[in-house]
Amino acid sequence: MTIDVQINPWLYCFLLPVHRLFLSLYFSQIVIHNYHHLPTQGPLILAVKHYSRWDPVIVPLLSTTPYYFLTNANQFEGVQGWFISRLGAFPVDVDQPKPSSLRTVVTLLQQGKKLVIFPEGGIVTNQPLRSLKPGLARLVLQAEKDGQSIPIVPVALRYRPVDRVRARVDLNLCPPIVSCHYRQATDKQTAIAMTTALERSLLTGLAALGL
C-alpha cells in the first residue's frame, strides 16, 4: 500500500505568485548557484541540507512545477498540515519509517515525479552535515528496477545572517549522483558508495558557500 499524495492544482496555482512575492520581500536576496546541474526532464531527488524551517519554502523556487516532499510526520498538524498535504507533502516517521512511506517514494519516482528529501532526517545546525544513512540511495536503486536512471542532486544551503529578516540565501546545486557511476557487486554496496558520494558532495557544496 502507498500513501495517496495530493497536489491541488487550484491551490498550487493560486499560491505560486504569492509564494514568490513573499520570499522576495522577506529575504534580501536568493541566489541559485550551478543551476545547470538540475536535470530538466525525468524523475529526480533533491537531497537538501536541512538548515532551517525555511528550507522547504525556498527549495520550490528551483522549478515552476511542483515537487513532492517526504516530510516529518510531526509537521501534519493544524492549518500547516492542511496546506502541505495538498501541496505534495506526505509523511514519514523519521525514527521508524513505515513501508507505505518508502513505497510511495519508489512509486512517485517510477511515475517520473520530482521529490525533495532532507537526508539528515531533521534540521541540523550544530555541524556542517549529519552522517547520512544509505536508505535514500536504496530507494533510488529500487525505483530504477525498470532500467531508468534516477539522479540525486545534492543541494547545499546557507543563510546570512541566520534566521533574520532580509537575510541572503544561497542555494548551491552540486553535480547529480547517478547509480551507474557507483555500481558495486551488490545493491547494498552500491547504496553505501552513493551515500558516501552524497555526503562528500554536500560537504563540498557547503564549503563553497563558506560553511
Short description:
The chain has 211 residues and is an alpha/beta fold.
The general outline is globular
Spell the H/E element sequence: HEEHEHEHEHEEH
- Structural category: alpha/beta
Q: What's the average pLDDT?
A: 95
Instruction: Give the amount of beta strand, in percent.
Output: 15-25%
In the sheet with the most strands, the strands line up as 1-7-6-2-5-3-4
Question: Percent range for helical residues?
Answer: 25-40%
Ranges where pLDDT stays below 50 over 5 or more residues in a row are none
- Report the sheet with the most strands, covering strand number, pairing sense and barrel closure: 7 strands, mixed
* Integer-rounded radius of gyration: 17 Å
Number of helices: 6
Features:
211 residues; alpha/beta; 7-stranded mixed β-sheet; 7 strands; 34% helix; globular
Record the SSE blueprint.
Blueprint: H1 9-26, E1 29-33, E2 44-48, H2 55-58, E3 68-72, H3 78-84, E4 89-92, H4 99-110, E5 114-117, H5 135-143, E6 152-160, E7 168-173, H6 187-208
